[in-house]
Amino acid sequence: MTECPGGPLLVRGADEVVGIDGEPTPVEHAVVALCRCGRSERLPWCDSSHRAPRKRKKKSDQQK
Questions:
Q1: What is the C-alpha to C-alpha distance for residues 33 and 3, in angstroms, rounded to an integer?
Q2: pLDDT tens-digit readout, 1-48
Q3: Which of 1, 6, 17, 40 could disulfide-pair with 47, CB 3.0 to 4.6 Å?
């Protein structure tokens, strides 16, 4: 396994990945990227959501 700074966790040679829900997901590639930021829409896989700027709350929303 390799941690990419500010990005995914790269896993090499896995047959399957077990998600947080306990469900195994087959791995079809020699190297897979697992999401560490929690923003991926394809969990457990990384979809590069970590690259998108985070939405900031408006000042009026923060005062509520």
A1: 10
A2: 999 999 999 999 999 999 888 999 999 999 999 999 999 998 889 999
A3: 40
